[in-house]
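re: that chain from earlier
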Amino acid sequence: MTARPDRWSPADVPDQSGRTVLVTGTTLGGLGPHTALELARRHARVIITGRSPERIAQTRRAILAAVPDAALESLELDLADLSSVRRAAATAARLG
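^ sequence. v structure.
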């Protein structure tokens, strides 16, 4: 079977070793946690963000259940609050 150029799957994501990726909207049930999970599976260091520490922790547990050796960082971030964005940006800069 010939691969179709309009078909994509998470398997198409190359190895991400040595990269740090910040993913927003990582509350379970959305696209963010799936993105973070697939990046963690490909060895990226993933910074998971969200407005609530409890929800960030839920996502962290879910990713670690699937990828026990995932390199995860957690960062509170409310994109609707400019002061939160500034704080998160400063923290993210220190994380790399």
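The chain has a mean pLDDT of 92.
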